[in-house]
Amino acid sequence: MKVGFLQTSPLFGKKDENIDKAMATIQSLNADLFVLPELFNTGYQFTSREEVLALAERVPDGQTTRAFVKLSKERGMYIVAGLAERENGRCYNSSILVGPDGFIGCYRKLHLFYYEKQWFEPGNRKLAVYDIGKAKVGVMICFDWFFPEVARYLAVEGADIICHPANLVLPYCPQAMITRCIENRVFAVTANRIGTESRSEEPLTFIGTSQIVGPKGEIFYRASTDRNEAMVVEIDPKIARDKNITPMNHLLNDRRFQVVSSRTEDFKNKLGCLRQRL
Question: What is the value of pTM for the model shown?
Answer without folding.
Answer: 0.93
